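Contributing new records

If you add data, match the layout below exactly. Sequence lines come first and carry their own label; structure lines follow with theirs. Keep one chain per record. Anything else will be rejected by the validation script.
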Amino acid sequence: MISLAGAWSYQPGPDLAALPGPSAYAKLQSDPNTATLLFNGMLAPLRPYRIKGVIWYQGESNADRPGQYRTLFPALINDWRSQWGYEVPFLFVQLAGFQPNKPEPAEYPWAELREAQGMTLSLAHTGMATAVDIGDEKDVHPRDKQDVAHRLVLAAAKTVYGENLVYSGPVYQSMMAEGNRIRIKFSQLGSGLLIKDKYGYVRGFEIAGSNGRFVWAQAVKDRDDVIVFNEAIRQPAAVRYDWSNTPDGNLFNKERLPALPFRTDSPQRP
């Protein structure tokens, strides 16, 4: 043991206050979020190897630019496929719930980012595991990773290995006005539509008239359709489901996979 008691001597270092700060280029090269730095450091070395597929869990940092993500995300997938020289299967996770919701229906960039992710399914050999029902409004990294992993396994079994199974929750297919109500039809129903509520109450729907102003809606299950309405709106024009930061919708299929969030008031892209 060496005693540290007693007087100490020290030599002051040079004064760096007058030195110029790092250049923008130097900062770019040291920022781990720089696109070229990430690709060259983590992906480029793998190009000589054949890979079975990709799992991607990202989107939070792009939530303030959801419109851009509609182009950016497919471009990334197509570029990676060009790097490997074949159509690499690409699976991704739709953003989990995060941050509080407003008391009334509103616009949410977080919801638009989820929409952009869903639109990316128009690319061949892609699959999406939604985490919309297992988020935490106070934690951007929800603890429930097991359900996310299970849904990714289902997507891989279908997309990569061609298994005949139910791998997705209900997906919006079409709407039809019936008087003061709107009937919503779904694909990916599996064994049928399920409302996760012991009394059969449906949550998560909004409805708007021609003015585009959304209000909370009532909804009822009709076989494998959902009828959405609000008695104050006589001529409904559009419906949204789980359109918020942290949705609480309870629409599933009988395989216990949640319906994907959607809105009918935006252009639907295949």
